[in-house]
Amino acid sequence: MLEVTCAIIFKDNRVLIAQRSTNMKLPLKWEFPGGKVEPGESKVACLAREIKEELNLEISVDKGLTNVMHHYPEFSLHLYPFICTYKGGELNAVEHAQVKWEKIANLMAYDWAAADVPVVKKLMELYR
């Protein structure tokens, strides 16, 4: 069971979404950016590190949402989503095919990784 964090980063009433690259697991699916928790690392520290490494952004981690356990055919994960605020940095997608700031109302138009779907639904419920 992988422990993974994801950031729902707000900036100007939009959230940052990322499309997985063709060489990643779940190619071209959309997700909220984040990554695997390293041994001994807190989830908040993991998220700040991953967002800096993968997107060159500084964030504040504000609050957690409901965790998601999902079983894909090849692996299982425990996803810890967090509401975050953009604090600075020039967006630079290092690992993803593309990243974009999107309105919450438009999120269901994307082909999401299955583990992220409950997070998208919860977000849309919270920010109608």
Textual characterization of the structure:
- It is a single chain.
- Strands 1, 2, 3, 4, 5, 6, 7 and 8 form an eight-stranded mixed β-sheet that branches.
- The chain has a single domain, classed as Nucleoside Triphosphate Pyrophosphohydrolase, CATH 3.90.79.
- By secondary structure, it is α+β, with helices and mostly antiparallel strands.
- The radius of gyration is 13 Å and the shape is globular.
- About 30% of the residues are buried.
- A hairpin with a 4-residue loop joins strand 6 and strand 7.
- It contains two helices and eight strands, in the order E-E-E-E-H-E-E-E-E-H.
SSE map:
Blueprint: E1 2-11, E2 14-19, E3 30-31, E4 34-36, H1 43-55, E5 58-64, E6 68-71, E7 76-88, E8 98-102, H2 117-126
Task: Give a short overview.
The protein has 128 residues and is α+β, with helices and mostly antiparallel strands. It is built from 2 helices and 8 strands, in the order ββββαββββα.
Notable traits:
single chain; 128 residues; alpha+beta; Nucleoside Triphosphate Pyrophosphohydrolase; eight-stranded mixed β-sheet; 2 helices; 8 strands; globular
The outline comes out as globular
* Classification by helices and strands: alpha+beta
Are there runs of 5+ residues with pLDDT below 50, and where? none
In CATH, the homologous superfamily goes by the name Nucleoside Triphosphate Pyrophosphohydrolase
Q: For the record, give the distance between the C-alpha atoms at the N and C termini, rounded to a whole number.
A: 33 Å
Give the count of helical stretches.
2
Tell me the β content.
Answer: 35-45%
What's the β-strand tally?
Answer: 8
Q: Regarding CATH, which class?
A: Alpha Beta
CATH topology: Nucleoside Triphosphate Pyrophosphohydrolase
Question: Mean pLDDT, rounded to whole units?
Answer: 95
CA radius of gyration: 13 Å
Question: How many structural domains can be distinguished in the coordinates?
Answer: 1
CATH architecture: Alpha-Beta Complex
Largest sheet: 8 strands, mixed
